[in-house]
Amino acid sequence: MSARYVRALALGLDPAWRRLDAARRRSTAVSFLEALAPGEGVVTETYSLIGLKPGIDLLVWQLAGSVDALEEESARLLRSGLGRWMAVRESFTGLVGDSQYVVRPTSQEQSLFEGERSRYLIVYPFTKSTEWYLTSREVRQGSMNEHMRVGHAYPQVRQLLAYSFGLDDQDFLVAYETDDLPAFSALVRDLRATDGRRSTVRDTPILLGVHRPAPEIVELLGASGADED
To answer: Do 196 and 109 sit in the same domain of this protein?
Structure first.
């Protein structure tokens, strides 16, 4: 199977854009939406973070066969209309692959670009300690078995784990998809009490996005709102 790269691109809008006249906001939004249409071989989903994370308004969640394709998508987006009023606040990249700890993946794992999208996407970078990697395979497997048992108790939450070793600052890019945020919060709480938590070095920032079509998001941002004094 060819390589598959996943990327979470978090963009923040310059507040000055909202003070442009309505016609200018509409025109910049149109060109931005045209640029956001994914290129060949790229899967794109959009999520709103308006008011949910300081400085971030839009999360572009993409899957592609190469990092080059993701880079080209970013360049096209940021030089177009509304994109020129946005800044990259966070960007996490990873390589989708089989887990060494999972013998038979379930429908919960690595399914975030297939089927119907859930309402919410939660993404964050994840890094483990040096001690974790120097521990024996048997000990690590036991810890991961506990982690997976907890996760399987919440079938309404799906997960994707992408490898970022050598590609980004974190070890992994972790993403969860669900329609049930209380269940997800309970899952995270339960995972905090597992042995694997001892090896966690970094698992922030956590980005929570609401799945919306891109035109709906730019409308929420104010693309066609009437001018106000």
So the answer is: yes
Q: Mean pLDDT, consecutive 10-residue segments, the chain of 229 residues?
A: 87 96 96 89 96 98 96 96 97 86 57 83 98 94 91 94 96 97 98 94 98 97 72
Amino acid in the structure at residue 64: A
Q: Do residues 158 and 175 touch, judged by C-beta distance below 8 A? A: no
Q: What is the value of pTM for the model shown?
A: 0.92
**What are the Cα distances from residue 66, in Å, to 73, 95, 109, 168?**
11, 10, 21, 15
d(Cα 142, Cα 205) in Å, to the nearest integer?
Answer: 27
* Segments forming the whole domain that contains residue 179: 101-208
CB count in 10 Å sphere of residue 77: 21
> For position 103, what pLDDT does the model report?
52
> Do 191 and 106 belong to one domain?
yes
Number of domain units in the chain? 2
192: amino acid identity, one letter? R
